TrEMBL record:
This is Cell division inhibitor. It holds the Pfam family SulA. InterPro entries: Cell_div_suppressor_SulA, P-loop_NTPase. It comes from hydrothermal vent metagenome. SUPFAM superfamilies: P-loop containing nucleoside triphosphate hydrolases.
Length: 142
């Protein structure tokens, strides 16, 4: 089965329309809308995460629905020593963590599974990604 089945990708204007294209421009925010949480949506970004982890920048996971599977990530080429997982107590705390991680410039990618991001917040996150030359990925349930 295609890992991307049941996944709709909405790519912001900061990228070229593909996940790998998002790496060509720093400071991007990608939104991935899916019917289910899990590895199918994650499979879309694994090649890019593997490349970014080799640059020795952090890969921050904010409020993931599942703990990232080490063997799956390692098999895709992700440097596990560069993976940072944050479990915020509230959605607003998670959004602050995403914004800070994007803006800091120490993360190659910040992946987030948060349900409380409105349009204004997404605009702020795009700006933070731009400032920190980081790639933000927001996973949303349909």
């Amino acid at each position: 089965m295609n890992p991307a089945s049941n996944v709709t990708t909405c790519v912001s204007h900061y990228s070229t329309g593909t996940v790998e294209g998002a790496l060509a421009l720093t400071g991007g925010l990608t939104e991935i809308r899916t019917h289910q949480a899990g590895n199918r949506a994650l499979a879309l970004v694994l090649p890019a995460l593997a490349r970014l982890s080799q640059e020795r920048r952090w890969l921050a996971w904010i409020a993931p629905p599942n703990i990232p599977a080490g063997p799956l990530l390692a098999a895709a080429g992700v440097d596990l020593s560069r993976v940072l997982v944050v479990h915020p107590r509230a959605c607003a705390d998670g959004l602050r963590a995403v914004e800070q991680a994007l803006r800091a410039g120490t993360c190659g990618a910040v992946l987030a599974w948060l349900t409380c991001a409105d349009d204004e917040t997404l605009h702020r996150l795009r700006s933070a990604a731009e400032d920190g030359h980081s790639w933000g990925v927001m996973f949303h349930a349909l």
